[in-house]
Amino acid sequence: MLKPAFAIFIACAAAAPQTAHAIHERASLLVVIANNAVSKPEGVALARQTAFELNVRLRRTQFKTVPLPETDLTNRPQQLYAAAAWGRSRNLHRRATAVLIVTPPIATRFAAGLALGVCRPRSSASYAVANIKPGDFSRSLVAAVHEVGHLLGANHLSFPGNWMHPDALNQPFADTANFQTQTKNEINRCLRTVRLTPPL
Ligand SMILES: [Zn+2]
Q1: Which one of 33, 65, 81, 140 counts the least CB within 10 Å of its CB?
Q2: How close is the Cα of 56 to the center of ligand 1, in Å?
Q3: Which of 7-16, 49-58, 123-132, 148-157 has the weakest average pLDDT?
């Protein structure tokens, strides 16, 4: 399933300096599907596609029961931070450059996402949470790629049609999102600042 965005991404990566490309490929992503947020097949597909879009390795996919507080839209960060705290308590960040925890939608119907840091590979802030909607793969993928993009150094970019749009979930480009050169440069610059070693 090659998408135009991927073709563009690969073409630019091939033209980039060899060292930057090599470092990028060594970054890894750990995806945790929490609390049956999605079916196992869809969760695996979401994890694989997220790693694919970001050109990082998918090191491990786990399916766990994560204790999350009941929440509504007004205290949304509470649930998101709780998921990240759960991951930190298990040192999941020791096993991946970035950790994405996928949880059920907020207030039973809202998709959302939050990254604990920008360019914080291999630290306790290397967690992102995506609240996704079962059966809505495109929006789930946007949430996942957008938040992991933050962890790997990407900032918001208001250019239309790109993964890092500040209001990405509400853009109509879910099936055609891409990375702008500025974002790819940010990610490569971020990953060059850290020493990436194979996950434990
Ligand atoms: Zn964002």
Answers
A1: 65
A2: 19
A3: 7-16
